[in-house]
Design brief:
Strand order of the largest sheet: 4-5-6-1-7
Number of domains: 2
Order of helices and strands: HHHHHEHEEEHHEHEHHEHHHHHHHHH
Strand content: 5-15%
Structural class: alpha/beta
Radius of gyration: 30 Å
Distance between the termini: 111 Å
Helix content: 40-55%
Number of helices: 20
Largest sheet: 5 strands, parallel
Number of strands: 7
CATH topology of the largest domain: Rossmann fold
Length: about 450
């Protein structure tokens, strides 16, 4: 058949081409000082959320899926006879889906969005067997948020309002073969209603895998722990191709580059070195970029509350201790405990990877957490060993922002001493207000 079908994925497997297509560097924000603090913080947060700098994992993941889609596309259009026959009698196949998993906020959905940018755009296709031109698509994408089951997924693909699940599956196979669908993407599977346990999720995933093209589903750790409780036949179909997306290493160029980009996009609202901010932000977020944006937003609010237009390093500590970050702080501390002790609470399965990770992937994070703990212990020991004079001298040389004394709660004024007239008046008022007891029956 036409060579354009087999070559439409050629530009999707080059790493540098992929990097250029998916990298997002928004313009720096301007004029935040002239806006109200909460409004300015929201604008800053929105700009930081747009940043996307792919790391090595994202690039290799996108390249892998693009290659799988290209291979399936070549199989679909191997010959015109086979192409037409698959439309009328679609083969009954079932693929083993790839599972993209990781901590919440680590960037899984952003990676899927970047993958969709790389995949080929729709093209027109003319075949003598069909009347007029057809539109070929590279992939189908659907979010599991709000979906009731596998039948609704199939109905959405073919634009139907209802019908039998078996008939919808056959129609999806026919449409996928006709339209050149080479990849299926299912995002946000953790939002599926799991009131019936993991059975509904399993049914949806297996239904989508039965359409035929290579498939990817995105999930947090919490759902995978539920799927691991399924029977072996379900686990062998759904959990044998995991791709685990971890936070960047604290000393990696990817993490430092991301923090440097945040400082640039802030448009001068962040004052400090990249090294200092990268270490402190990683300590407070465990390298999760969604939390980094949240932390910087709260730090900017703290800086504006202190009468400053730019946030400094000390504002990150205030943001980490603020009420808005309290729930997130518990998760970050639990992740640091896991990194140090190698164990976690069974009650927080959403923070524990369901698959055993190689030691090489955890070494840098463990070293960072251990060094950070040792540094804090040394500082505490040093401060406790100072004399009164040495402690006063240390406070004088510390920057004013680092001291950040807590405001003292004003004491309530003491109550005035009651005179005899006041006591008599209070006694009479209490006597009048107290109801008399009812007389007992004889």
């Amino acid at each position: 058949m036409n060579e354009s079908f087999s070559s439409r994925f050629d530009s999707c497997v080059d790493i540098e081409v992929i990097r250029q297509r998916i990298t997002v560097r928004p313009d720096p924000v301007k004029g935040l000082a002239s806006k109200e603090s909460l409004v300015a913080a929201q604008i800053l947060s929105g700009a930081l959320e747009q940043i996307y700098l792919p790391n090595d994992f994202s690039l290799s993941f996108i390249k892998e899926l693009s290659a799988k889609a290209a291979l399936h596309s070549q199989w679909l259009f191997s010959s015109e006879v086979d192409y037409i026959s698959r439309f009328y009698t679609p083969p009954d196949v079932e693929v083993r889906p790839i599972c993209l998993t990781g901590l919440a906020g680590v960037g899984k959905s952003q990676t899927i969005a970047a993958l969709r940018k790389v995949l080929p755009a729709p093209i027109d296709f003319a075949c003598d067997h069909f009347h007029g031109n057809l539109k070929l698509f590279s992939h189908w994408y659907v979010s599991a948020r709000g979906k009731a089951g596998g039948r609704q997924l199939l109905a959405d693909f073919v634009g139907a309002t209802g019908g039998n699940a078996a008939k919808l599956l056959v129609e999806c196979r026919r449409r996928a073969n006709r339209d050149g669908i080479s990849l299926l993407l299912l995002d946000e599977t953790q939002h599926i209603n799991t009131g019936q346990g993991a059975s509904r999720v399993t049914e949806m995933l297996l239904t989508m895998a039965a359409i035929g093209p290579p498939m990817v589903f995105v999930s947090n750790y919490s759902l995978l722990h539920k799927l691991q409780g399924r029977n072996s036949e379900d686990k062998q179909r759904l959990l044998t191709e995991p791709r685990i997306m971890l936070p960047d290493d604290p000393d990696s160029e990817s993490w430092r580059g991301y923090i440097a980009e945040c400082i640039r996009v802030a448009g001068g609202c962040i004052k400090g070195s990249v090294d200092d901010f990268s270490q402190e932000i990683y300590r407070s977020t465990f390298g999760i970029k969604r939390l980094a944006v949240e932390l910087l937003k709260n730090a900017y609010i703290a800086a504006r509350g202190g009468g400053r237009e730019c946030l400094e390093l000390a504002d990150l500590s205030k943001a980490y201790q603020c009420v808005a970050y309290a729930a997130t702080k518990e998760d970050v501390e639990e992740l640091h405990i896991q990194a140090l002790q190698g164990r976690s609470s069974r009650l927080r399965l959403d923070l524990r990877c369901p698959f055993e990770l190689p030691a090489s992937l955890k070494s840098n994070v463990v070293a960072f957490a251990r060094n950070d703990r040792e540094t804090r212990v040394i500082n505490k020991v040093f401060e406790s060993s100072l004399t009164v004079g040495e402690r006063e001298a240390l406070e004088e040389i510390q920057p004013a922002a680092a001291k950040a004394p807590r405001p003292k709660t004003p004491r309530k004024p003491p109550l005035p001493k009651s005179s005899m007239d006041d006591l008599e008046r209070a006694f009479l008022e209490d006597l009048v207000a107290t109801p008399l007891p009812k007389p007992k029956k004889p």
